[in-house]
């Protein structure tokens, strides 16, 4: 097993290709965050073909697997020492310091990054990095995974919506799964399902990466609660899901609408031309079928 060492790394459909911002990039599969586990399948020159084990995917091989694709071999580190992650970054971007007393900035990591952090009562806490080194980060920028997973369902729902709200106005990036950062070394942003996946991950929940797979594993519901999902099918293909939105409660939703646009918050009535009480699962909206799903009790 290997770990990703880049803050945000792109998983590509073909080796030797680079992301194309601001356009629908057919070679962009998904993004991996620092410390995510991958299974190395093969290499080609400076590229590695892997499965991203923390992003369940079905469509590529018609079976459940880690999300497959290519990334630079230089972005991988063998996992020599196994430490169970126990914390997640919940601020949009967190700074890792290489030396706590002097506060020498090493690099930044995005929300949704899972880490092993040494419990500490101070304002800064030690964190173990993928290469085995120790860094430091501000305690206020993380939450303990155990605590998040022990929250009452309604509280977890609110926290998922809060995580998604941090991404408002971020650019839509096809295959994106990271919060936007203008000075980032790589292309950052989210697509519709990346927004949902990242928001859940920030509260310690792993769900599939893509909209269709999120639909496959979600429990069908007739009524929406905050953090439930609204799915849209492809035109005239009611069982092929191509879009997902996060229900934010009180008639509002959050979505990554498409290339050239930004993450937005709007009412169900604005989005579908009808209020929520008239939007039922199975409704046709412009030749696309609507479904509701949940991952929470």
Low-confidence stretches: none
Instruction: Name the helix and strand elements from N-terminus to C-terminus, one letter apiece.
Output: EEEEEEEEEEEEEEHHEEHHEEEEEHEE
β-strand amount: 35-45%
Radius of gyration: 19 Å
Question: What's this entry about, in short?
Answer:
The chain has 297 residues and is mainly beta.
Characterise the protein shown here.
This protein has 297 residues and is mostly beta strands. The protein has 3 domains: 2-78, SH3 Domains (SH3 type barrels, Roll), CATH 2.30.30; 87-146, SH3 Domains (SH3 type barrels), CATH 2.30.30; 152-294, endopeptidase fold (from Nostoc punctiforme), CATH 3.90.1720. Helix content is 13%, strand content 40%. It is built from 5 helices and 23 strands. The strands form 6 sheets. Strands 17, 18, 19, 20, 21, 22 and 23 form a 7-stranded antiparallel sheet that branches. It has a 5-stranded antiparallel sheet with strand order 6-5-4-1-7, with no helix packed on it. A 5-stranded antiparallel sheet has the order 13-12-11-8-14. The longest helix has 13 residues, at 153-165. It is globular, with a radius of gyration of 19 Å. It starts with a strand and ends with a strand. The model has no long low-confidence stretch (mean pLDDT 95).
């Amino acid at each position: 097993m290997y770990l990703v060492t880049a803050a945000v790394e792109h998983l590509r459909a073909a080796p030797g290709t680079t992301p194309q911002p601001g356009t629908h990039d057919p070679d962009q599969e998904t993004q991996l965050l620092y410390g995510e586990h991958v299974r190395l399948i093969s290499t080609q020159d400076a590229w590695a073909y892997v499965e991203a084990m923390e992003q369940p995917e079905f469509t590529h091989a018609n079976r459940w697997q880690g999300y497959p694709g290519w990334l630079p071999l230089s972005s991988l580190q063998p996992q020599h020492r196994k430490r169970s992650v126990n914390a997640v970054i919940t601020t949009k971007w967190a700074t890792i310091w290489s030396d706590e007393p002097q506060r020498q900035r090493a690099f930044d990591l995005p929300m949704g990054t899972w880490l092993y952090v040494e419990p500490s009562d101070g304002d800064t806490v030690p964190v173990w990095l993928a290469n085995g080194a120790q860094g430091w980060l501000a305690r206020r920028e993380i939450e303990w995974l155990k605590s998040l997973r022990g929250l009452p369902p309604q509280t977890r729902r609110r926290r998922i919506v809060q995580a998604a709200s941090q991404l408002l106005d971020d650019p839509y990036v096809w295959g994106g799964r990271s919060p936007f950062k203008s000075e980032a070394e790589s292309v950052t942003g989210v697509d519709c399902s990346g927004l949902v996946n990242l928001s859940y991950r920030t509260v310690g929940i792993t769900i599939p990466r893509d909209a269709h797979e999120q639909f496959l594993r979600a429990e069908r519901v007739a009524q929406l609660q905050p953090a439930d999902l609204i799915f849209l099918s492809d035109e005239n293909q009611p069982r092929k899901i191509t879009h997902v939105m996060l229900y934010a409660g009180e008639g509002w939703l959050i979505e990554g609408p498409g290339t050239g646009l930004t993450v937005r918050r709007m009412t169900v009535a604005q989005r579908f031309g009808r209020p929520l009480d008239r939007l039922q699962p199975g409704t046709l909206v412009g030749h696309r079928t609507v479904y509701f799903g949940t991952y929470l009790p």
